[in-house]
């Protein structure tokens, strides 16, 4: 085991990234409806529950993301919890494709946000609060509805690799 002190800023960020890569996370696609009515989404593994009463979740986005204002100004968003057999979608929504929803089976949910069909679960939210978090913005959402859809193996992110987790 190596103890790496956090001393220089660039070394500490690199070191922290390496250490945190050993923490297994689930993979989600956060979706929103643009003002013109078209869907937009991006792959996120910085997702977590916050509270059951009231029901709150959080996720974060790099402040350099060109679509951050879309999420800062939205009336709602959806969390699509992805399955291991959907890693191709996780990669697509993490990439630079302009029309990420092309040929994707999806529908608008009750709150008007895009839901990816055949995901493991959907969580529809309205914004609760946004917080500055260093080089990221932390989005906290109030859960309006949550639906479990499948017990297939989950998509997972570990050591910089997209894979799967089976219980």
Question: If you had to describe this structure to a student in words, what would you say it looks like?
Answer:
The protein is mainly beta. It has a single domain (26-159), classed as Electron Transport, Fmn-binding Protein, Chain A (Pnp Oxidase, Chain A). It contains three helices and twelve strands; from the N terminus they run αβββββαβαββββββ. It has helices at residues 9-20, 68-72, 87-94, and strands at 25-26, 28-33, 39-44, 47-52, 55-62, 77-81, 106-108, 114-116, 121-133, 136-148, 154-158, 161-165. The strands form three sheets. The protein has a seven-stranded antiparallel sheet with strand order 3-2-6-9-10-5-4. The chain is globular and about 45 Å long. The protein starts with 8 loop residues before the first helix and ends with a strand.
Q: Structural class of the helix and strand makeup? A: mainly beta
**Rg over alpha carbons:** 16 Å
CATH homologous superfamily - what is it?
A: Electron Transport, Fmn-binding Protein, Chain A
CATH top level class name: Mainly Beta
Architecture per CATH nomenclature, i.e. the level-2 architecture? Roll
How is the main sheet built? Answer: 7 strands, antiparallel
Helix content: 10-25%
Number of beta-strand segments: 12
What is the average of the pLDDT values? 90
Work out the helix count. 3
Strand percentage lies at: 35-45%
CATH topology name, in short, is Pnp Oxidase, Chain A
Distance between the termini: 28 Å
One letter per element, helices H and strands E, the order comes to HEEEEEHEHEEEEEE
Q: List the domain count as a whole number.
A: 1
Sheet with most strands: strand arrangement? 3-2-6-9-10-5-4
């Amino acid at each position: 085991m190596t103890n790496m002190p956090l001393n220089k800023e660039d070394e500490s960020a690199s070191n922290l990234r390496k250490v945190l890569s050993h923490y297994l996370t689930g993979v989600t696609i956060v979706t929103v409806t643009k003002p013109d009515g078209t869907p937009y989404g991006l792959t996120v593994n910085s997702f977590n529950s916050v509270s059951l009463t009231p029901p709150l979740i959080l996720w974060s986005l790099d402040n350099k993301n060109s679509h951050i204002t879309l999420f800062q100004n939205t009336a709602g968003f959806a969390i699509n919890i992805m399955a291991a057999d959907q890693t191709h979608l996780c990669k697509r929504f993490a990439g630079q494709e302009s029309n990420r929803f092309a040929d994707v089976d999806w529908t608008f949910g009750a709150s008007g946000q895009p839901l990816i069909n055949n995901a493991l679960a959907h969580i529809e939210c309205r914004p609760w609060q946004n917080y500055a978090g260093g080089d990221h913005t932390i989005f906290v959402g109030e859960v309006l509805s949550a639906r479990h859809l499948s017990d297939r193996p989950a998509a997972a992110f570990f050591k910089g690799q997209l894979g799967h987790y089976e219980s």
